[in-house]
Design brief:
166 residues; alpha+beta; 6-stranded antiparallel sheet; 8 strands; globular
Length: 166
Amino acid sequence: MNPETLQTGDILHCRGKGVISTLIMWSTKSSWSHTAIFIEIWGQPYILEAQRKGVHVIPYYKWLKKYGYEFEISRNRLLTDHNLYSISAMSKVGTTGYDFASLLIRFPISLITGRWKKIKFESNKMFCSEYALWTHDVEKAYRMTPHQVYEHCGTVDGWDLIESKY
């Protein structure tokens, strides 16, 4: 995919082919296993995401090669200040760990009971979909799976789903 199609703040709804991705898709009954965001830094394409090493930035082409995700894109039309967005999104890089407790404990419990056990937002740990929506100031982002992010972006005014699959 040519990064010229992407804009800073775009959310990438990702489908991986590995075991963990397959387990996430199976357990959440979804086509999506990961969520990331696109950002342009000094005219170069990058991906910001929360993975096992926490919130980090990776060059776009390196990310494509490393993970091989298929993805669809959602764009927030109401996002106008890409500079301010970038500063906020980058503030979590290297300072925010990955929320393993939500992935390994809270998500499975919520799937069984239908109730979410994470009571409040914790700014020092995030998982992928939580981070992506946090960058767009979405309330209760800490409760959303990658699939729920996809649904959110498809149903909320101001968001467009870019129809292409990559």
